[in-house]
Specification:
The protein is α+β, with helices and mostly antiparallel strands. It is built from 3 helices and 11 strands, in the order H-E-E-E-E-E-E-H-E-E-E-E-H-E. The strands form 2 sheets. Strands 3, 4, 5, 6, 7, 8, 9 and 10 form an 8-stranded antiparallel β-sheet that branches. Strand 4 and strand 5 form a beta hairpin. It is globular.
Amino acid sequence: MVGGSIAACTSSGGGDWQDDLAAVPAATTVGGSNSACRLPVIFDIAESWVPEAVDTDEWGSPPVQGTVSLVCEIDAKPAGRAGFLRVWTSEETKLDSRGILDGYMAEEVGVDEPAYRETKAGAFPAAEVTYLKPGAAEAETKRERALAVKLPRGSLVLHLGGLDTREHENMLPAYVLAKNTMRESSTSTRPAE
């Protein structure tokens, strides 16, 4: 029954969800008061993935996409992968998860074959999209994924890209770990001093 409801929520294109993937083992967490990134949630991250708070741009503001601002990048390079988990947050509380995701995706460039579904991030209801974007090489596309969550004290988008589709797929178990272990944090979204 669950599979049927998910299928009903996907858009044309069908997606490439790879729901049979297991999460990698957890090495540490990100989001708490002692973390490099203070977030409205805490989630587990894979071994050798390194979180770092996002510096503001020359105007003193972080990058913004839709209603959310980029606050944290979790770098996969120390784990031997070319990509990031990126965390975008907002104090926005009026939109539901799909509205948050729609705002984020409206500003993604070159999106092709998006497929949406309702899902869970830990215990939180969430909306998720998988899609293709232009890759580095001419005529190449790569797969990306984003997850939006409405939280009691704001909203969050978790995004996984990658150098190419192969790297994206190699990093998906770390994304699954973050998604499945998401829980509320009592800290603010400001980076640690």
